Amino acid sequence: MDAGGHGDGGGVGRIGDRAWLNRMNSLTARKAEPQRVANDQPRVPEGTRVYAIGDIHGRLDLLLPLLAHIKADNGARQPADAHVVLLGDLVDRGPYSAETVEFIISALPSFATFHILMGNHEESMLRALDPADDQTGNLWLKFGGYETLASYGVPVALLGGEELPGADILAQYVPARHKDYLKGLADTVRFGDYLFVHAGIRPGIPIDAQDQVDMHWIRRDFLDHKGDLGAYVVHGHTISTTPDMQANRIGIDTGAYRSGTLTALGLEGDSRWLIKASVVEGEVQTKLSTVG
Q1: Cβ burial, residue 156 (10 Å; 0-12/13-18/19+)
Q2: Which of 61, 90, 112, 139 has the greatest number of beta carbons closer than 10 A?
Q3: Contact 174, 77 (CB under 8 A)
Q4: In Å, what is the CA distance from 166 to each residue of 68, 159, 173, 210, 286?
Q5: CA distances from 289 to 6, 120, 167, 172, 243 (A)
Q6: When comparing pLDDT for 10 and 223, which is higher?
Q7: What is the pLDDT of residue 15?
Q8: Cβ distance 41 to 233 under 8 Å?
Q9: Cβ–Cβ contacts within 10 Å for residue 163, how many?
Q10: Residue 188 phi/psi, 5° resolution?
Q11: What are the tens digits of pLDDT across the range 3-38?
């Protein structure tokens, strides 16, 4: 059985079908990236269960109950190797960025293996904390950095101008261990047919040759592409009211910082389901729903 969960029964298969392609690839020792067959339902490897969580943006108040529901959901299913992927943008815009980073570093639950990806907001934050970086064009303070630095206790008086405070000043408030942790975040992780990345990938470029800028920032060239991407992509970065489900990708950034809804996608075999944590009448409620 291959990583996509399909067996060939030990035979060569019919010319052109998946078993035949797998056999030919094996015989010729091809090392190309695994490709999904058109119109085939994407799968994660057998015995693996994956949960992906969209952009948190400092909403630790939503992340905690969402993780509690994910833990309960995982425990209610058959035993499997459980993984949780956070799709980046842990910080900015919401009120609890510092607390979110600290929780992820020191207090993640042990029911699953966690994979934390780099988002464009982490990239901008790290630039601001780098004394050797040219801050020209770094608009982090205007698109979420203000809230993040406030959560670290940076005085409002230092945040009132148009320019970022110097990296030497920020280092007095942002712990070095937080900076070091964020610098070590991965750009992608893959399970079977599914590729997890913050913003997306550039169509036509092999996955292992993707540019980091695209993986953190890309929008239209990726979002508008309807063809094969080399994997079924699960991403955040671009807000949609409900998960944006397409034939080649699914976006699960539901704008937690402004909508009050943080969304997770569950995957096992070829099954998919959603778990959402939402503020309803001042209280956080979680809900599970199935998807096609």
Answers
A1: exposed
A2: 90
A3: no
A4: 39, 11, 12, 32, 41
A5: 26, 29, 44, 44, 12
A6: 223
A7: 41
A8: no
A9: 8
A10: -145, 160
A11: 333 333 334 444 445 554 444 444 333 333 444 444
